[in-house]
Amino acid sequence: MSIDGSGGKLWGVYEGLCLARKIGLVAMEVNIDSQAVMDSLSGSKTCCVVGCRLINSIRSMINTNWQVVFKHSY
């Protein structure tokens, strides 16, 4: 996964989740147009060195008392 492609989308997911937490949302649907990002976040693929820390941060954020649904949009 390159930081230019999917890495940028991961940053978007991370920043969006940070904002959602800041404003107090407890349930949300996140639409992602990248199958590689979906696979990374669902845990079906191991993360690469570049995005591993970011993926782990996102995974730990969604493993709290949130209701987060990721959907792949085309």
TrEMBL record:
Molecular function terms from GO: nucleic acid binding; RNA-DNA hybrid ribonuclease activity
Recorded superkingdom: Eukaryota
Listed InterPro entries: RNaseH_domain
Pfam families: RVT_3
RNase H type-1 domain boundaries: 8-73
Organism: Glycine max (Soybean)
Protein name stated in the entry: RNase H type-1 domain-containing protein
